[in-house]
Amino acid sequence: MTVAGNGAHGPESTAGASLRTRAAPALAILIGSSVWGLAWFPYRVLAQWGVAAVPAQICTGSIALLLLTLVYRRSLGTLRWSWLLAGVAFAGGTTNVAFVWGTTHGHVMRVLLLFYLTPVWTALFAHWLLGERVGMRGASLIALALGGAGLMLWSPELGWPVPNNPGEWAGAIAGAAFALNNVLLRRVSQALPDVRAEMRSWTLYLGCVVGGLLVLPFDGGAEAGRATVSVLTSSMSAAAVALALGCTIAVTNVIVQFGLARVPANQAALIMLFEIVVAAVSSWWLASEGLGVREIAGGLCIVAAGVLSGLLPDSGRCKSATAGDAMV
């Protein structure tokens, strides 16, 4: 209750405000996870209209980069040349290009579950680049995630439990690059404290555009580029989808940054796993894709490794507080 005339707040009002303060950042991350879990669909729509995966990623990444430049233009002055930032651009670009290509050409849920082998790669990269011990806890999570991947991928007909097609390989590569990006972002925050956090995201999307251009020769090359320009200039629907997707990616990044700055790293990592739920429902509903019992069991092992990674944080282990920076 508010006391008239003096602006004082009673316990009920204070409790309500506190609840809203805690709920808003978590909701921001939840919104971001939902967007990422649905992002595969508009890319597939664009592919059906003649815009290949990599050219589409270049277009949406360019739009996101332009918007972030406008929003964060006052922070551009904090940028400086560093191999660490170049590494962030490389890892972030690889993550986005591989993720978009994989979900466009592969089975969405299998690609996404391979992507979420991130705890395995994070532990290895953190040991290599940050000198952090893997430890028994980390080794157990690695074993659980790899066991789940093996269960999901193995079959008597296909032999060894490895990705079975280029789309699945792209998902695995995207997950490894995602982990590398998280580790490098931690190094950047330590070594370059004067670089504003939003400029790390800006650098990442610059890497998305440059990385897409470098990979374009392997996804149709100049012909795919010309086809993309032709489709986007002749079809208002395709242009609208590409513009809306690019703007959504940029706005989502801003929203998620708000949440990540206010939610503990382990809690944020757990909330982000909601992306798998959204992707599972959307791929079943929109693309009629399902998973068998063995694949579901393997996927649950991978998700469990991610959950335990958040529930049982280790002070000596790399945390993914900036994980949202790396998404499409």
From TrEMBL:
Q: How does it sit in the membrane?
A: Multi-pass membrane protein
SUPFAM superfamilies linked: Multidrug resistance efflux transporter EmrE (SSF103481)
Q: Where in the cell is it found?
A: Membrane
Its chief place of residence is membrane
Q: Which residue windows are transmembrane per the record?
A: 23-43, 49-71, 83-102, 108-131, 138-155, 167-185, 197-216, 236-256, 268-287, 293-312
Key words, A-Z = Membrane, Transmembrane, Transmembrane helix
Record-annotated EamA domain positions: 26-153, 167-308
Entry similarity comment: Belongs to the EamA transporter family.
Q: What is this protein called?
A: DMT family transporter
